[in-house]
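Sample intake sheet
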Amino acid sequence: MAKILVVDDAEFLRVRISKMLVGDGYEVIEAENGLLALNAYKAQKPDVVLMDITMPEMDGLTALREILAVDSGAKVIMLTALGQESVVLEAIKSGAKDFIVKPFERDRVVGALQKLIG
């Protein structure tokens, strides 16, 4: 099954997403900020990245650009709170493949992954 990198500074959210994905048979890697996500991406080469936008150390937009600089074919889905529409547009322009608004439904997350993984 596919390997997913879950990136969010909120541990409860990482755990929630990870449990959901592991239950569906995905392999999950976690990172708590963009800098750790970049390092994890380079080391683990996940199939898809689920990444929050607002994080310490390195925000999601910067991490998105850095990951795409390493791998132009990277598949990144941004996780966003309501009210971050302008940032979401910037993320899509920068190369994000999709976005999911928090709080999210399981079907939306799984559907977005299946669309990218095939």
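Comment: Residues 3-117 form a domain with the Rossmann fold fold (CATH 3.40.50.2300). The chain has a mean pLDDT of 93.
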